[in-house]
Amino acid sequence: MFELVLTAELSGVTRLQPVDTESDPFYYMFKVQCTSCLVTHANRVGISRFESHELSGSKGEANFVWKCKNCRREASASIKSGPIPYDISSPPKQVNILAIKCRGCELNDFKPEGDWMAVGEESGTKFEGIDLGDGEWFDYDEKAGQEVSIKDIKWDIKMVKGTKV
Hints:
It is a single chain. By secondary structure, the chain is mostly beta strands. It has strands at 2-11, 13-18, 28-34, 45-47, 53-54, 61-62, 64-67, 74-81, 95-103, 105-111, 116-120, 126-130, 137-141, 146-159. The protein has a six-stranded antiparallel sheet, with no helix packed on it. The chain has a three-stranded antiparallel sheet with strand order 2-11-12, with no helix packed on it.
């Protein structure tokens, strides 16, 4: 089991999370490494909690299925929980926003491609279409009369052993 961990400095906004609905799914973009031969896929792969792919041999389904070109083994990943909104805190704290169960692969190097959303801390203003690709975001909350921002964004992927989901 892997957990995607976010740490960020939020100012004037809270409830940061990806826009991730069945009609507008979010693709969590990772580098993937085969645990059998240790080869890392050349490109990032997208995992959506709304996609389902069959595993070979009628072994069920997963959100992501990959056959390693080097060793020919099949690997899979399924989102088990999340996304969990990231709330404002001082000092910023680490929050596990997503849990992914992997078989035959490891996830590393997350890139926050896609749209994110947040809510004005005091005003309740909805901010949508937030791009975290540059590692920061700035806007102005008209209702609160103040600048809002998301800065010092750090992503970590933690392996959690012994977790049954």
